[in-house]
Amino acid sequence: MKILVLGGAGYIGAHVCKAIAARGDTPIVYDNFSAGHRDFVQWGPMVEGDIRDPATLDRAFARFKPGAVMHFAASIEVGIGEREPLAFWQNNVAGALTVLDRMAHHGCEIFVFSSTCAVYGQPDALPITEAENRKPANVYGRTKLAVERALEDISRASPLRFAALRYFNAAGASPDAEIGEKHDPETHLIPNALKAAAGLLDEFHLYGDDYETPDGTCVRDFIHVDDLAAGHLAAIDRLATGADSFTCNLGTGQGTSVRQIIDAVEQVTGRSIPLTIHPRRPGDAAELYSDTTRAGELLTFQPRFSDIHTIVADAWRFHQKDWAL
Questions:
Q1: How far apart are CA 55 and CA 49, in angstroms?
Q2: How far, in Å, CA of 48 to CA of 301, rounded?
Q3: Going by C-beta distance under 8 Å and a sequence separation of 6 or more, which residues neighbour residue 189?
Q4: Residue 43's closest CA among 182, 179, 237?
Q5: CATH class given for the domain over 2-171+223-250
Q6: Quick check: is 140 catalytic?
Q7: Phi-psi label, residue 262: left if phi above 0, alpha if psi -120 to 50, beta otherwise
Q8: CA distance 256 to 254
Q9: CA 30 – CA 45 distance, rounded (Å)
Q10: Are 6 and 51 in contact (CB under 8 A)?
Q11: Is 44:64 a contact under the CB 8 Å cutoff?
């Protein structure tokens, strides 16, 4: 199968492309390189373009005739979304609708959407199931929910079949250190903890140590990026058999605290992290972790690499290479 991978030069998209190629299919990277990395395009052809540009999308569909589309080309930084909501709505929602319009024009009917646990907002119960009310608390989550609702409407009235995969906290890197997490600005926990351990940050900021959790710090569900990639391939395979559209969580079902991440980074690197405690950030929930029952039932999904020491060790191996340590 040829799969058009929107945002295929980014963190998760590139890992998915690598997994697609490893099993003998062809990923076609489609990226505008606003956040992606040209050196991450290693496993198939590439089209440079924006998802809001119908003419470039048309050329990609006409040339490669993909059997499916995977969408990783959204804007993701929550803080930027709060400051620049129009840009988020233009890229995340208008962009997705442009893609779906061109898919319909070219007769491509399978769509895997990178959604997020942010569509749930503050959950009413833990672990979070797919039946949880969707009440996102930020612009990022609201744009993702808008696309989910569009997919639900469009699929009822057309041949489109989709999988909306609600990620929890993607982390780690490919074990061979070829590709990993590189964001600018970098706001994610594990890369910043590793930067602090490597001496590339003066200090690591811990926001809140007085939550009602076992060690007082926030608890999140960290899933290895290679496990996420496997979930995407399973979703494509399910839809390719003619299955109906579906939505499911992709996480581990286990929570790990910020303190536990810091401990793991110090153990893996053998270095201490200079740490400063700051007040809680507004809107940060004490605990967020997934119920993975549906992913297990629909995709036979079982994370293989997502214990926290494996995640940190793989990330550290990549960053040592990337930062020339």
A1: 9
A2: 32
A3: 169, 171, 220, 258, 261
A4: 179
A5: alpha beta
A6: yes
A7: alpha
A8: 7
A9: 9
A10: yes
A11: no
Sequence ranges of the domains in the chain: 2-171+223-250
Are residues 99 and 160 in contact, defined by beta-carbon separation less than 8 angstroms? no
Structure tokens at 320: 């040592």
Per-residue pLDDT of the chain (325 residues; tens, 9 = 90+): 999 999 999 999 999 999 999 999 999 999 999 999 999 999 999 999 999 999 999 999 999 999 999 999 999 998 899 999 999 999 999 999 999 999 999 999 999 999 999 999 999 999 999 999 999 999 999 999 999 999 999 999 999 999 999 999 999 999 999 999 998 888 899 999 999 999 999 999 999 999 999 999 999 999 999 999 999 999 999 999 999 999 999 999 999 999 999 999 999 999 999 999 999 988 788 999 999 999 999 999 999 999 999 999 999 999 999 999 8
Cα within 13 Å of Cα(290), Cβ side: 26
33 in Cβ contact with 48 (< 8 Å): yes
Q: Could you give the 3-state DSSP secondary structure of residue 278?
A: strand
| Cα angle 185-189-190, degrees, rounded to a multiple of 5 | 105
∠ Cα 267 269 272 (to 5°): 75
Angstrom distances, CA of residue 308 to CA of 220, 231, 261, 282: 11, 18, 7, 26
C-alpha to C-alpha distances, 18 to 92, 95, 117, 294, nearest whole angstrom:
24, 24, 24, 25
Residues in the chain: 325
Annotated catalytic residue, options 30, 120, 140, 211: 140
